Amino acid sequence: MRAINLPVFLRPWLAGWLALAGTAGPLLVDAGATGATLRIALAQPFVEPGHVEKNIEAMKPLIAESAGRGAKLVVFSECALTGYDLKGVGAKAALKLDAPELATVADLARRLGVAILAGFHEQLEGRLFNSAAVFFPNGHRVIQRKHLIMAPERAACPDIAGAPRERTFFEVDGFRCAVLICSDALIPGIYEDLAAAKCDAVILIAAGAGSETFGVRQSELSVPAARAKWLDSSLVYIDRESVARAIRLDLAHVAVNQSGWNPASGYFQPGGSSIIDRTGTVSGVIPARFVFEHLQPDLAVGHITRAVPTR
Fold it and tell me: CA separation (Å) from 303 to 45, 62, 74, 183, 281?
């Protein structure tokens, strides 16, 4: 059984949702349960492919604000350091693990007392990877490399390698976490495997969107067809299946998408990030911004919980 701390008026709603989501077994709702809590920051600076130092400078105020608001983990997007695009601009700025730019991020974690998760293109023994690093205040690092390389990414970076399927677990304040890099969320059975491994939270980092045709300009919103396109895309930033899966597997889901627009490469990322607790609570949201003029640095701080079993 799992204990979930909920207000009385929400208990029938959750019980019905769990039934729809396919959760097996009885649910024990304990109004007195006091699970452990982890505060997490969703950080979306404006990322420019190939401009690593500039991207790090854009990260600094968001990390400082996150620490000031009590976050213990600050999550940036896939390739937040090098940038992501489909012309290989970001990949050309790939970093080795001993690069001074990574040392700068490690120093920020140490000075501000927070763990920082950020993606980057990595050079490793003559190979190129799409990787993520978690930098801890004590100087420790954890590296996760992307497994599932999709056709558009391989076309932009023919030399990019896929890493093994296995996940590297890490802990922040006792919460056991794992990283999925974008398309790795499509690995069959990956969420079920992580739940079986007693993972408390899956952190999904992405740099998703596409060409500039995905976005619109403010002036175009007066045109019915453009306005309808914008409404269909920008107002859907909480995935129903992610919420249902979080409840079904007792597994929090943290997602951060890159925000950026590079006319030179023609690639556009609208952001759109969220924190979904294992209870189904959405505790942090940054809306996707499909209007070019609306793109801006964004930060949201939320929390996830870990249940204390009743006896």
Answer: 20, 17, 12, 25, 9
Write down the CATH number for the domain with range 36-306: 3.60.110.10
Q: What are the boundaries of each domain within the chain?
A: 36-306
- Distance CA(162)–CA(166), nearest Å, equals 12
pLDDT at 119: 98
What is the rounded distance in angstroms from the CA atom of residue 201 to the CA atom of residue 274? 13
**What residue ranges of the chain have pLDDT lower than 50?**
1-34, 311
Q: Are 207 and 269 in contact (CB under 8 A)?
A: yes
pTM of the shown model: 0.85
DSSP string, 30-79: -TT---EEEEEEEEE-B--TT-HHHHHHHHHHHHHHHHHTT-SEEE--TT
Number of Cβ within 10 Å of residue 22's Cβ equals: 10
Give residue 26's pLDDT: 31
Residues 246-270 pLDDT 10s: 889 999 999 999 998 877 777 888 9
- Only one residue has tokens 């974008």, namely 182
Alpha-carbon gap, residue 95 to 79, rounded angstroms? 11
Question: Can you tell me the distance from the alpha carbon of 239 to that of 149, in angstroms, rounded to the nearest whole number?
Answer: 22
- Which residues is 57 bridged to in the sheet? none
Distance, C-alpha 124 to centroid of its chain: 24
DSSP-derived 3-state class of residue 280: coil
Distance between CA atoms of 76 and 159, rounded to whole angstroms? 25
Report whether 175 contacts 201 (CB < 8 A). Answer: yes
Q: Are 42 and 286 in contact (CB under 8 A)?
A: yes
Write out pLDDT tens, residues 16-50.
Answer: 333 333 333 333 333 233 459 999 999 999 999 99
Residue 122 and residue 157: Cα distance in Å, rounded?
12
